[in-house]
Each structure stands twice: as C-alpha cells, then as structure tokens.
Amino acid sequence: MPSLRVVSADEHRDYLATLPTASFLQTPGWAKVKPEWRSEHLAWVDDDGRTVGAALVLYRQLPRLNRFLAYLPEGPVIDWSSDRLGDWLDPLVRHLKGEGAFAVRIGPPVVTRRWTAAQIKGGIADADVRRLGQIPPLERSAAGARVVSQLHELGWRHQAAEGGFAAGQPQFVYQIPLVQADRTPHTEESLLKGMNQQWRRNIKKADKEGVEVSVGTGADLKAFHDLYVHTAERDHFTPRPLRYFEVMYDALNEEGATEPVSEMKLWLARHHGDLVAATLSVRVGTHAWYSYGASSTEKRDVRGSNAVQWAMIRDALAAGATVYDLRGITDTLDADDSHVGLIQFKVGTGGEAVEYAGEWDLPINRVLYKAFQIYLARR
User: Fold this and answer.
1) CATH no. for residue 260?
2) Domain shared by 210 and 84, yes or no
3) Cβ-Cβ contacts under 8 Å for 204 (sequence gap 6 or more)
4) Which residue from 214, 282, 227, 207 is spatially nearest to 252, judged by alpha carbons?
5) Residue 282, SS3?
6) Residues 70 and 129 in one domain
7) Is the Cα torsion angle 79, 80, 85, 91 positive or negative in sign?
8) Which sign, positive or negative, has the C-alpha torsion 127, 132, 136, 137?
9) What is the pTM for the complete model shown?
10) Do residues 266 and 215 make contact, with C-beta atoms less than 8 angstroms apart?
11) Does a structural domain hold residue 147?
12) How do strand 274-284 and strand 287-295 relate by DSSP bridges?
C-alpha cells in the first residue's frame, strides 16, 4: 500500500514530468494562481521509495474558524484504475484531517460517458430531448463506473456540477480527439473533414479576409484583457482582473523551472491591425486546453474566433497532443435554453461531449460540513 508524504513543489513537478499528462489544475504552478488558498504538495510513495502519485491540495478557510475545505481540483494524480482506491484515499484523508480539514473535495480525472457530435446535434433537434443524459452514449466507461462505485462505498458524496465555494470544475466538457481510432495522429485535413460545413466555411472566410493569428507574449496580456472586458460587458459576465491573467501566465509557464510541465500561450487574431479575437491555451504533455477567450463585437463577420481556434488546434496537433479540450459545457440540449448556443458552437468542431466522474466530497466534521452546505445555498 503506498504511503503519503509532503514534498516540495520541485519534487511534485519532477514526478508530473514523468507522466504523459495531468490536469493543469494539479501542477505546482496552479497554487500561485490561487493565492487566497493555502497550498500543499503531496506524494504517494511505494515500498521501494518510488513516487507513484501526487497531489496539489488547496485549503480554503471557513469564515472565522480555523477549519478548511481541502480541495484537489481535477485530482489527485493517482492510479484511478485501482480496485482498492481506499488504499490511496484513506491516507490522504487522514493527513488532511490533521491539517484541519472539515471536508475533502476531489475531482477524479476519469471519463464516465461520451457522445458524438452527431448524437448531440440530433438531440438538439429532438423536441423530446432536454438533457444530454437522455441520449444513449456512444461509450460507457467501465473504469469510470468502477471509480464511481468505489467512491460511493467509501462514503464520498457526489456534488452537482455547478457546485461553488469558488471551486467547482465542469463535469461535462467538449473535446476534439487528435488521434484516430487506431491511435494514429489526425492530420489537419482529417480534422477539417470532421468539422461541420459552417466551421470549415468560417475558417476559410477568415483566411480570405486576411485575418492573421499570432502568438503573443506577456506584454500583450493588456490587449487581451481589454478585449475580454469588452466581451464580458456584451455577454453579461463578471470579468477577472488583469493581474489574475498575469499571474496565471507566469505560473503556468513556470518561470525559473528547469523543466516546466505546463505551457500557456496567448493567441491574437488581427484583421488589418484590429484585434478581433484573443485566447489563452494551456498544454500539459498530451492534453491541450482552450482556457479563456475574447472577441470583438465589430468585425464579427471576419470570423476571428474560428481562425484563432483553428490555430490552437493545429498547434496542439503539432506539439503531439492527443486531445484538444474546449472545456466546460452544460448538459442542456433544450433549443430554448440560452446555454445551448455554447454547445452548438463547440459541436461544429466535430469532436465529442465527455462526462467525467465529477467532484466528490467527504465530510470529516459533519456539523461544519452541514454549515458549509447551508452557507453555499445562501450565496
């Protein structure tokens, strides 16, 4: 049974560097992005002293109490195929309890179901279908089902995807596989073929209109942020401050690290000198993510958003990534729901909707955990 110990950020990073990928939310750099949370780096070690698992833990203090929610976003990074998850999670819980945690929240990076773009398109067109779960999936993961079953048996509680405390990660995401069924890499041509006609037309139009996409530097974050604030005003969401993105850019590029495990890029799409779209992407090994995006209201007809997405997809493919992750979607397929437009945009890329196991809580102090739930419900 692996044992648990506290490690340095460098030891944590060195272990992740040996893996094909891990969530960028479990990299040492992510702790710097969340300074309002106390952070800790942990490792599981086998009997021979080899590191076999790792975790970034973020501790969020309860108001006026010296007790914490211990949060492992999209983690921990362990062997989730194990039939004895208690051997991994029990020592974790014991340690976190000793650190003052009243509850633990984890996000197993384990897929449970997948749906094709064609299935989703058909569901949106069907008036009787309101939710993704009403459609029989293309795939049900046996490994995912084993994880869910074990977590229930171990007393963990599944949380709604919209769970808060400034923490919750999406349970449903949209991804473009960059490898084919036989595990050979896609080509740019085969990826374009998988897109719908509208996406191909928009990419072609952006090129014809002279949209130019380039990779920026940290100095260009102000231009990105100005466009992002414009997007927030148009689409009615609260924007993050510029400083958040400056910290995130430096942290995920791990300035000073000899072997950074994560890479963030800033992408800028310009039309005759005007910034029409800007995005941030992250890559850890074979997994690439679209993180944040912004677009101008003017010149939307030059299709800068499609152009910049296509540039990020091509870059991920060239870097050897096996998946391009467009991140969260809701599970609604109701044509009258305002959220359905997001999934329609992403469905046009081809790809597939993917459901993960979601986030799970284990109450340690049940009284405080109940108070915590009441606090969340009133927010």
Assistant:
1) 3.40.630.30
2) no
3) none
4) 282
5) strand
6) no
7) positive
8) positive
9) 0.94
10) yes
11) no
12) antiparallel
Range(s) of the domain holding residue 195: 113-140+172-356
Question: pLDDT digit of tens for each residue in the chain (379 aa)?
Answer: 899 999 999 999 999 999 999 999 999 999 999 999 999 999 999 999 999 999 999 999 988 889 999 999 999 999 999 999 999 999 999 999 999 999 999 999 999 999 999 999 999 999 999 999 999 999 999 999 999 999 999 999 999 754 334 457 999 999 999 999 899 999 999 999 999 999 999 999 999 999 999 999 999 999 999 999 999 999 999 999 999 999 999 999 986 666 789 999 999 999 999 999 999 999 999 999 999 999 999 999 999 999 999 999 999 999 999 999 999 998 989 888 888 888 999 999 999 999 999 999 999 999 999 988 887 777 6
Chain length of the chain: 379
Gap between the Cα atoms of 77 and 84, Å rounded? 15
Return phi, psi of residue 67, to 5°. Answer: -135, 150
Does any domain span residue 89?
A: yes
